[in-house]
Amino acid sequence: MSKGDVVLLDCWVSPFCMRVKIALNEKGVEYKHREEDLFGGKSELLLNSNPIHKKVPVLLHDGKPLSESTIIVGYIDETWASPPLLPSCAYGRAKARFWADFIDKKIWRTNGEEREVGTRDFIETLKQLEEALGERNYFGGEGDAFGFVDIIAVGMASWFHAYEKFGGFKVEDHCPKLSAWLKRCKQRESVRKVLPDPEKVYEFLLMFRKMQGLD
Ligand SMILES: N[C@@H](CCC(=O)N[C@@H](CS)C(=O)NCC(=O)O)C(=O)O
Predict the structure, then answer these.
(1) What pLDDT was estimated at residue 120?
(2) What percent of the chain has pLDDT over 70?
């Protein structure tokens, strides 16, 4: 479905960018993406489009920039109506935003430096998320369908393999339902096309830690 020109300022390994790509894929929106070199030098377009944070993702819709992945996913949902990603009732939408906020604040970690002290906390947080999933197939937009919270969570989950290798644990051993949810998500075309090879994410994290002098 087309509704104007859609360009994403992207980075292949960024879970935040993955969210935007998955949302666009779910909606069947055609888009172009420009890979940003976040370490070598950001493009003028990125610096001008997101002057406050200077981060990807940036979505340019007919040249108009938007930043912050959860805000962009919400915008995509309002702009391309079908299929809906957020629930139709206000309470459901508020709950979805609560879990998106929880995922951003509690699950994302960029360098794994907390691995020695943090693995237990991380698993506890995943268990809380798993409890929110309950017996459902997806966190849901509308009903049991794949939706907003799934999109927000699945980008992060693309880093689980790397965290597992650093932390010496398996998400599946602690959170079997969450692990099954991830497998289910990966079977979707919209997700499969976007999630990078987990081994490549691990290699990226190794390189990133070296750059930060952590290894
Ligand atoms: N809260 C932002 C986070 C975006 C973010 O952290 N992007 C990273 C890539 S994963 C970035 O552009 N980093 C470049 C920098 O910090 O200079 C969102 O949800 O979009």
Answers:
(1) 84
(2) 93
Pocket lining: 36 vs ligand 1, CB cutoff 6 Å: no
C-beta of 155 in contact with ligand 1 (< 6 A): no
Residue type at 86 in one-letter notation? L
Cα 56 to averaged position of ligand 1 atoms, centre (Å): 5
Residue 119 is predicted with a pLDDT of: 84
DSSP notation for the chain: ---S-EEEEE-TT-HHHHHHHHHHHHHT---EEEE-BTTTB--HHHHHHSTTT--S-EEEETTEEEESHHHHHHHHHHHS-SS-SS-SSHHHHHHHHHHHHHHHHHT--SS-TTHHHHHHHHHHHHHHHHHHHTT-SS--SSTTSS-HHHHHHHHHHTTHHHHHHHHT--HHHH-HHHHHHHHHHHTSHHHHTTSPPHHHHHHHHHHHHHHTT--
pTM (2 decimals)?
0.95
| Sign of the C-alpha dihedral computed for residues 47, 1, 142 and 133 taken in this order | negative
pLDDT, residue 212, reads 82
Q: Which two tokens stand for residue 19?
A: 């969210």
185 C-beta closer than 6 A to ligand 1: no
Rounded distance from Cα 89 to ligand 1 centre (Å): 30
pLDDT at residue 1 tops 80: no
